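Contributing new complexes? Match this layout with (2S)-2-hydroxybutanedioic acid.
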Amino acid sequence: MFGKITTLVATAALSAALISGSALASSPITIKFAHVVAENTPKGKMAIKLKDLVAERLGGKVVVEVFPNSQLFGDENVLEAMLLGDVQMAAPALSKFDRYTTQLQIFDLPFLFKDMAAVEKFQKSEKGQALLKTIEPKGLVGLGYLHNGLKQLSASTRMKVPADAAGLKFRIMSSDVLAAQFQALKAVPLKKPFSEVFTLLQTKAIDGQENTYSNIYSQKYFEIQPYITETNHGLLDYMVVTSKEFWMSIPDDIRPQLKAIIDEAIAYGNKISADKDLEDRQAIIDSKRTEIIMINDAERSQWVEAMKPVWQQFEKEIGKDMIDAAYQSNM
Ligand code: LMR
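Output block (do not edit by hand):
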């Protein structure tokens, strides 16, 4: 009798172990993708595309869960969380990596790229690709560049020339180059999380901010900022990133397929970013809530002249050869 019970218990324990073992073997790899913007943006759409493509082609093996609007993490802590294994993928602005590498600061230099074609050309070059690897020593893997577009300045007062920005408080991303850029205008830069910008503008704690039309539209800044000066003075681009530990934990027969899908989702995001820029610009105009101020060549030269000394300030950290190569991509 006693022997029978022992056998029964042992059998039950064995089958429980087998069930949990097989459940473990078949449970999919989960990728939590955290980002700070709205879903109807180049990054939001790229993340959804990634989720859908993974479900279609790697269903059962990998699953992507997307957390937009800073729901899971803000950009201030997402990379730390990634290194701790609490999130597996993100795409912070290149301006937000300066704790991990100073070389990516190149992308914040004002008036470095004349358009997105120049950005694309530089990023595809050997030097551009090498920059993706500068975060590797910190345990992060750069999976690719994702575009948003060129930035505009929005403010509570009309700005035509750099002197109009003097004394105003601008929210910036956590980048020393961007801080220097506003200091060059004799304005006051404040590093603040993206999720706080709307309230800071609404309560008039700050006077303005810089961002793309996509973010100005999707975050509704245009409803509370009466003026947008179309300067196209800087770039807002992202790096799709994961941790080395997570990336290498993906089985060898899945990783290349997953990388191909990520590349496809990034290409999709990049393709729609230009259209989104124009579309959101038009939606802002149609809203009649704000005025888009265009600047002429002479005014533009003034902005360039005021901001360009920043290049020299960061030349040592970034490397002159790197800056020259990026500048050449405009030709
Ligand atoms: C910002 O903080 O302004 C941007 O990085 C937000 C984003 O991800 O586009």
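Reviewers usually confirm one structural detail per submission. For this one: The domain at 92-328 is CATH 3.40.190.170 (D-Maltodextrin-Binding Protein; domain 2).
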